[in-house]
Write a structure and sequence with these properties.
This protein is α/β, with parallel strands linked by helices. It is built from 11 helices and 10 strands. The strands form 2 sheets. It has a 6-stranded mixed beta sheet with strand order 1-2-3-5-7-10, with helices on both faces. Strands 4-6-8-9 form a 4-stranded mixed beta sheet.
Length: 261
């Protein structure tokens, strides 16, 4: 892993930080590959139940792709860049990631940075946060999920207004549209994220995984099909010890003790 991505594990929570504050946390191919590898490792780590994704400093969550890398003309470096991209599995490309991810957003979340946040389960942001997909202003399109996720997460006409103009929305507008779970003052952001994490960790891990899989696999399908389909994570939960522990703990008026089995 390079210093462009930092991972700090504290008990069941892993904080993944995009660490390029001098570039407003814009991500080049090295950072994208490092993020991909970090997420793969955390997915395989049974001790980690929740991931918080954030950006270093207070200026930006991420300004998206580092466009300076696109301007590199050296053939050898272009070949190395292309090789790194071939090895990347971006969060925005993953149909189903096995663990919940909270985006903790300060400042700007632009382009690919906004797309990263859209791919997370929750977005908690400070009141100075700004979200935008300015790609068409650069002759590009937000193809790492933005053109598809934004119209699924807010009304289509509003999404098209932002997609076709590159216009930004502030934190309160994003909250009003349902893109953001909570907006707080900057000095309360860590506290707010910790609260959401605490509530999530109080739930059974297998139930969380099953819920996420059901939502990801069923959200764009007809309701009848989605409700009658087979979901492997739900089959595992239904046969687990935790599915017995939850009702038993409720009946015995005590906190449940989850084992993840």
């Amino acid at each position: 892993m390079t210093d462009s991505i930092l991972v700090d594990c504290a008990g069941p929570i892993a904080t993944v930080t995009i660490n390029r504050p001098e570039r407003s946390n814009a991500m080049d191919s090295i950072a994208h590959l490092a993020l991909s590898e970090a997420l793969d490792r955390l997915a395989a780590d049974d001790g980690i139940r929740l991931i918080v994704l954030t950006g270093a400093g207070k200026q930006a969550f991420s300004a998206g792709r580092d466009l300076k890398e696109l301007a590199i003309s050296d053939a050898a470096e272009q070949s190395a860049i292309a090789d790194r991209w071939r090895r990347v599995t971006r969060l925005t490309d993953r149909f189903y990631y096995p663990k919940p991810i909270i985006a903790k957003v300060r400042g700007f979340a632009l382009g690919g940075g906004f797309e990263l946040a859209l791919a997370c389960d929750l977005i908690i942001c400070s009141d100075d946060a700004t979200f935008a997909l300015p790609e068409p202003k650069r002759g590009l399109i937000p193809f790492a999920g933005g053109v598809h996720r934004l119209p699924r997460q807010i009304p289509r006409k509003i999404a098209m207004g932002h997609l076709l103009t590159g216009r930004a929305m502030d934190a309160n507008r994003a909250y009003a549209l349902g893109l953001v779970n909570e907006v707080v003052a900057e000095d309360r952001l860590d506290e707010a994220v910790a609260g959401w994490a605490r509530d999530m960790l109080a739930c059974a891990p297998l139930a969380i995984r099953a819920i996420r899989q059901c939502v990801a696999a069923g959200i764009d399908r007809p309701l009848r099909d989605a409700m009658t389909d087979h979901y492997p994570a739900e089959a595992i939960r239904a046969a687990s010890q935790d599915s017995i522990e939850g009702p038993r703990a409720f009946a015995e008026k005590r906190p449940p003790v989850w084992t993840g089995r």
